[in-house]
Write a structure and sequence with these properties.
The chain is α/β, with parallel strands linked by helices. The protein contains twelve helices and nine strands. The strands form two sheets. It has a seven-stranded mixed beta sheet with strand order 4-3-2-5-6-9-7, with helices on both faces. A two-stranded antiparallel ribbon has the order 1-8. The mean pLDDT is about 95. The protein binds S-adenosylmethionine.
Amino acid sequence: MSKIGSSTKVKQTIKEQDFYIKKKFGQNFLVDQNILQKIVSTPTITENTLIIEIGPGMGSLTEHLIEKGKHVLAYEIDKDLIPILNENFNDQELTLINDDFLKRNIDEDIKNLNMDFDHVCVVANLPYYITTPITIKILEESTMVKEMVLMMQLEVARRLTSKPSTKDYNSLSVFIQYKTRAEIALKVPRTVFIPMPNVDSAVVKLSIEDDIYEKPNNEEHFFKLVRASFTQRRKTLVNNLHFNFQKEKEYYINVLEDLGFDSRIRAEKLAVEDFILLSNTLSISNKNKE
Ligand code: SAM
């Protein structure tokens, strides 16, 4: 049987179904069976796994996911792709939701399937214009998803996985690595897509675990602190904190020195655990002053 994710098949579908590729939906269809195989062998998928796919497109990845897991729940925004997908798959193997993923309640959709699963994971070749909002939404809103394998721009993949003191390390790196074990599983050249994007890609594996770090005393304060610390990369941490939280610079200098940091340090030098320590100290001293 000819696979959906081949350049001949995708071109044939475009022609026969009168389909036109929509740039505004970030449509770059994957047409390399070798890469597709590598993507589906990255997560832990058993016969009892529910796989969530965002943007199934014509179904090239979906086809492999259905072979491996118990069921696939897929969200596709483009209504023109729905008849194409319905022609290729039946509802025993695929539940297709024609909607913007960003508007959905993921855990509600999973519960509405009325099925039992051991494990829920997300596998997707993401629409690149909303890679970050999709990733953050899943991490913030779902208690059921435990693993994600996501194709994205190489540049974003580097941000999610980069370590302190590197040029790609920023508040998103801290947020992602606080919530997950993050690694680049595979680099993907631009030549394996139709149409070919302007950038290279990578597949990132994110394993969601609760106990990677001890929880900060005030998680909301921790997230605020991390964002504030990176507002102006070239400024020192003290300057960014003073600018965002309005306390005197002296105050932040003293806190940093008490914790054993150089008071001229920049945010990019701080590891996740350093931000947790700093957040715990600042939120306690703030409380004592109130
Ligand atoms: N999975 C297919 C493949 O690998 O060939 C297509 C991947 S393509 C990069 C991204 C897909 O996401 C497209 O099918 C696009 O229509 C869909 N998409 C874009 N924005 C979306 C959104 N907000 N919600 C759901 N699907 C979306």
